[in-house]
Specification:
alpha/beta, Ubiquitin-like (UB roll), 34% helix, 25% strand, Rossmann fold
């Protein structure tokens, strides 16, 4: 007689605690990435509620800048394009530099560096202290700044020459009102008293020293009646008297 063998059912092993924890953490990580992706792509997620503007202001109004930044915010904390907002701020001529950073969880911190005008450039623009051109509204250009003129691309050279010449002339009490570099790269300046000094294109340092020597040894006494000085001579300079029209003006 054949005997049937009865097999006991196989025991099922339960998942280990480590496997359960791993699965849980994997699911949580995937869920977290999903939430983060949603936050990065959803303009409404974590909206910006505060804008803080910082800087030293003379020509700009912080409240106006704050409103300009706030009106440019079109996305949430993660999705906001701060580079675009920075470019928008730099469209304002009086802003030299701007940095924007997010402050968790709902704020923007904006730091602005304002332009420092040191000279007028042409009729419609100004130069800052390193020779960069910026052009605000013409009615906002200060009229008490020195006037610098020159060919396009010569801004830094003209500004440096102004610093040099003004420093030398200040030693004898002469202030520069206008410094001009012509298309042929010849230099002419006008003093605050309306006197023209022609320096030419070469040997500016030597020519200026000859003038200063002559000024300190007699020319200063006749200076009120001088109209112009031409320094384009090898061993001296020419002096012209002020015209009657200039005296009347």
């Amino acid at each position: 007689m054949t005997q049937a063998k009865i097999r006991a059912p196989a025991e099922r092993s339960l998942p280990s605690p480590t496997a359960i924890m791993f699965t849980f953490m994997l699911a949580a990580t995937i869920g977290g990435f999903g939430w983060l992706t949603s936050a990065l792509t959803d303009p409404a997620a974590l909206p910006i509620r505060k804008v803080m503007v910082e800087g030293e202001f003379t020509h700009l109004v912080p409240d106006v800048l704050q409103e300009a930044v706030a009106s440019s915010v079109n996305a949430g904390f993660f999705a906001l394009d701060v580079t675009r907002i920075r470019r928008h701020l730099l469209d304002e001529p009086w802003i030299r530099e701007a940095t924007i950073r997010r402050v968790w969880p709902d704020a923007l911190h904006v730091r602005v560096v304002e332009q420092t005008p040191v000279a007028r450039w042409g009729r419609l623009a100004m130069l800052n202290e390193v020779g960069d051109i910026f052009a605000p509204s013409v009615d906002l250009i200060p009229t008490d700044l020195v006037q610098l003129n020159g060919p396009i691309g010569s801004e830094v050279e003209v500004l440096r020459k102004y610093y040099f010449l003004s420093g030398e002339l200040a030693a004898v009490g002469i202030d520069i009102a206008v410094l001009q570099l012509s298309a042929r790269y010849a230099w002419t300046l006008t003093t605050a008293g309306g006197k023209n000094i022609v320096l030419g294109r070469r040997e500016l340092g030597q020519r200026l020293q000859r003038f200063l020597f002559g000024y300190q040894h007699g020319l200063s006494k006749a200076w009120p009646s001088v109209g112009h000085v031409d320094l384009r001579y090898t061993n001296g300079f020419a002096v012209g008297q002020r015209t009657p029209q200039a005296d009347n003006g």
